[in-house]
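Task card 7
Instruction: Convert sequence to structure tokens.
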Amino acid sequence: MDQPAVDRLIALLDLEVIEVNIFRGRSPDDIRQRVFGGQVAGQALVAATRTVDADFAVHSLHSYFLRPGDPTAPILYEVDRTRDGHTFVTRRVLAIQHGAAIFGLSASFHLPETGFDHQMPMPEGLPEPESLPDFATRMEPWKDVLGEWYTRPRPIDTRYCDWHAPDDRRSHSMFQNVWFRADGTLPDDPVLHAVVATYASDMTVLDTSLQPHGGSGLGDIFMASLDHAMWFHRPFRADEWLLYAQDSPSASGGRGLGRGLMFTRDGKLAVSVVQEGLIRPARTC
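Output:
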């Protein structure tokens, strides 16, 4: 476990209050070309949540990545209190850097209630996460190529059920199953667990759209999130193993579509995710 990395993630997802409905976030002090999409989505959800009564829980978010974020500059989050209803609350959040919008999010919050209940079943026959290699073990043969990226702290532990090496150029299934969790203990705050799941949801789902094409994670593909949507169905903890069952229905026109279902270890469907992103050979970018 890497509790210090998880504690840094918790601090990263916290926001400074600037004014009513205005918050400021920061990026990690490391070398990045642009802000990680999961970070800005998670921070935007925090901003929205800070303006909502604690009795309401987020049930969906829809977002667009508008411009690459500058990791050397703070990000301002402006919240519009769109609607306050008896059972639903809606917020819109705009993330701004250098005077321009880089990200927009709409989030809906619901006062919990009971009703009909059904779900898709969790995939069966998959290996347990403890039996699968972590990032350092998987990527050890490429550590010299990865450099600092290999050694940096990783607050999210990912374990691939059907991992393919980054230099494997064969075509593979358009399905991918990944166990993940925060690599340490999180406070007992359901908002934080939803935000950490939002952060982690952007880490692997778009990769699934490259699997049929022998895509690589070592720099010969340009990838960027375009839009991202999530639905939160049932309670979960992001510091306990979640199965992220992903597929890619389509890739065309330089864009790939990825979908994912997050299941708790005992089989409850917790979150659904859909993302579209750019997937281009790097030489065409």
